[in-house]
Amino acid sequence: MKIIVLSGLPLSGKTTYAKKIGPDYNMPLYETGTEVLEEVTGRGLDFTPDNIKMVTDECKKISDSYFTERLMKKVDTLPADILGVFISGIRAVSEIEILKKHYGNDNVFVIAFHTSMKSRFNRLNNPDRVEDTKGAKAEEDKLLRNFDNFLARNKKELGYGVGDVIALADYMMSTENEIWPYVTVEKNAIDFEIIIKEILK
Questions:
Q1: Tens-place pLDDT, residues 32-70
Q2: d(CA 71, CA 91)
């Protein structure tokens, strides 16, 4: 089984392309953010920035890769005919190393997504995102529409080490839609699928 890690700052397109291409290859998508949501709400807490930080900090004292390890337990239960899975939200090189130790160096790949802050911030108001995003995630998006909150979230992600994961990625995709190099969702989907085919061959 191939483990394809999708890394990038918020709204860079990680899950968008996994959801577009994944079903064609029977490849499920797992997100560390979902694990965080389950951990926070499972404690009876509201999914707010303060609670997210508190719970995340507590869990990372147990293990720096706490949420990745939770995902791995789910991946390990998948049937043998699953050729690959997407994991989105990995923030530290140490988490990549744990995945490689468990699944093998030759079975773990990182695809990094890079987009300007302006483009990513504007995507919060995309009609399709607003319509599709429900529950606690919708509440988080409301908070992020304040630029100071959005900037703080980006700094937090970088503090966890996501910049190092992006820098050391096996593949890089620009999903910019404001300035050069401008690309369309359709063109990116084609390029993303080329990468997936290469990994799975």
A1: 888 888 899 899 998 877 888 899 889 989 998 899 999
A2: 14
Residues 6+ apart with CB under 8 A from 131: none
Give tens-digit pLDDT for 163-196. Answer: 999 999 999 999 998 777 788 889 999 999 999 9
Residue listed under structure tokens 């190393």: 97
Residues 153-185 as b/e (b if ≥16 CB within 10 A, e otherwise) read bbebbeebbbebbbeebebebbbbbeeeeebee
Domains and CATH numbers, the chain: 2-200 (3.40.50.300)
Q: Do 155 and 53 contact (CB within 8 A), yes or no?
A: no
